[in-house]
Write a structure and sequence with these properties.
Layout: E1 25-29, H1 47-55, E2 62-66, H2 72-79, E3 100-104, H3 120-131, E4 135-139, E5 148-151, E6 168-170, E7 175-177, E8 184-185, E9 199-202, H4 206-216, E10 222-225, H5 235-244, E11 250-253, E12 266-271, H6 285-298, E13 308-313, H7 319-325, H8 329-342, E14 349-358, H9 361-379, E15 383-387, E16 393-394, E17 397-407, H10 410-429, E18 437-442
Parallel strand pairs: 1-2, 3-13, 4-11, 4-12, 10-11, 12-13
Antiparallel strand pairs: 5-9, 6-7, 7-8, 14-17, 14-18, 15-17, 16-17
Helix pairs in contact: 6-7, 9-10
Bound molecules: zinc ion (2 copies).
One zinc ion binds next to loops.
Length: 445
């Protein structure tokens, strides 16, 4: 590397830190992808941003960011003159984006009032597609069988002992699993609160969809792609190969079916629960939903443009679904950038996020408050919180969060980082907060 013997390096995110001697170009494809950010453990860096900084240290180096659904920050930089912008108006191979039909599942009444998994129009489209010898991809961003079970009598929901999350039922392994810490529990037959034996399964994961498909289409070849089915060595490649060779008619899966797969014979993509992608308390939720659904839809786009997408939702009028239906990135950008400006979120500010962890709830609350107060005199206007996150306990540690939204002023940000480090040391010097874990994350995603 150092002697310049290699001229091209194809690498994962950490390859940005190799000791280049004469860097000329960094190409960062699908630059919006959140997996460019290393979340855990430290260093919590975004390889895209690191590449931009790193290349600035070399006189001749350029960075090329590629995406059909750029991160809002990136598109902002590209349209305000910070980055150059090249738009490809013609798609490779003249591929057309498929039309998206929205199915209002609120209108479909289920006998047990459970969530609609496969609506009649979707079932019809699957049948019709497979009978034409074409393939189907169904997308649901939850694995397992049933993401939570509820006691029909008192409403009790089985939860993980160590985390503040409900347990997902996995039918094949016949276990309840915590998707946060991985703890497994035997399936429940009795409610811990009232002793009733009647549980209802709410919502659905990929495993349940697969089961329903096998029942509905006994003659179709059905497969599932999620972390549970690709665990073994080569399992992922085998599945992709089978799909490519046309040995699978319907593939149901999580995000995994979205990434980098280009299949020639997919004529139908079903997004089974669009609402599940829109219900997060995160300022990036609409951007993320747009990127994900646009990428999923792309699996059905091809030259002859016979493909189509069916999207199931209970809120068909939602503005974000309307722009997704039109594949209108710029409309999404316009709305979102306005709200970012109004609420002072990136790209207009930079975020420093702190997570406090400790096994005692009162210690973590006092510690986080004391920490926030120590910064308040200087950064009062920029501090949000501290507050409990939506999931406030993981692996038996209680959590508190603090967000600092800073103006894009390099000096101020550097000063703030310094003050944070000082205050972390001060807090951990106090006897009662000695074992509080504090995790800072700059430009949190
Ligand atoms: Zn009960
Ligand atoms: Zn857990």
């Amino acid at each position: 590397m150092k002697n310049g013997e290699l001229s091209i390096v194809l690498g994962a995110r950490s390859s940005v830190f190799l000791p280049y001697s004469n860097l000329g170009l960094v190409i960062c494809d699908e630059e919006y992808d959140t997996s460019f950010k290393q979340q855990d453990p430290a260093p919590r860096y975004n390889a895209r941003d690191a590449a931009i900084f790193y290349s600035s240290l070399f006189k001749q180096a350029n960075v090329l960011l590629g995406s059909a659904t750029p991160a809002l920050e990136t598109y902002h930089n590209a349209t305000t003159g910070k980055y150059g912008l090249v738009e490809l108006m013609q798609r490779y191979g003249d591929v057309h984006l498929p039309p998206i039909d929205i199915i209002d599942t609120k209108k479909i009444i289920q006998k047990d009032r459970s969530k609609v998994m496969l609506s009649p129009p979707l079932i019809e489209a699957i049948t019709e597609t497979v009978e034409r010898n074409k393939q189907v991809i169904l997308f649901q961003n939850r694995r397992g069988y049933s993401p939570y079970q509820v006691c029909q009598v008192c409403g009790w929901i089985p939860q993980c002992k160590y985390c503040d999350v409900s347990l997902t039922y996995h039918k094949f392994s016949n276990k309840l699993i915590c998707h946060y810490c991985g703890t497994t529990y035997p399936p429940l037959t009795t409610c811990a609160a009232c002793g009733s034996h009647n549980f209802m399964q709410r919502n659905f994961g990929t495993e349940k969809i697969e089961e329903q498909l096998l029942e509905q289409f006994p003659n179709f070849r059905i497969a599932r792609m999620d972390v549970d089915t690709v665990r073994g060595k080569n399992a992922h490649d085998v599945l992709i190969q089978q799909f490519e060779q046309g040995r699978i008619d319907v593939l149901v899966g999580t995000q995994m079916v979205v990434k980098g797969l280009d299949f020639d014979h997919v004529d139908l993509v079903g997004i089974l629960d669009a609402d599940g992608l829109l219900h997060f308390a995160d300022f990036r939720v609409n951007e993320r939903a747009f990127q994900l659904m646009e990428q999923v839809s792309g699996r059905a786009g091809r030259r002859e443009s016979t493909g189509k997408v069916l999207l199931q939702t209970i809120q068909p009028q939602s503005p974000i679904l309307q722009v997704i239906q039109r594949h209108d990135y710029k409309a999404m950008y316009k709305t979102e950038i306005e709200s970012r400006k109004q609420f002072f979120y990136p790209p207009f500010s930079r975020l420093i996020h702190l997570t406090f962890k400790h096994k005692m709830k009162d210690i973590i609350e006092r510690g986080a408050n004391e920490f926030a107060n120590s910064l308040r005199t200087k950064y009062g206007n920029y501090i949000v919180g501290p507050a409990e996150p939506v999931i406030n306990r993981i692996r038996n540690l209680h959590l508190m969060e603090l967000l600092i939204k800073l103006p894009r002023d390099g000096k101020l940000i550097a000063q703030c980082k310094q003050d944070i480090l000082t205050q972390i040391a001060v807090l951990r010097n106090e006897r009662s907060f000695k074992s509080v874990v504090i995790v800072p994350d700059v430009d949190v995603l």
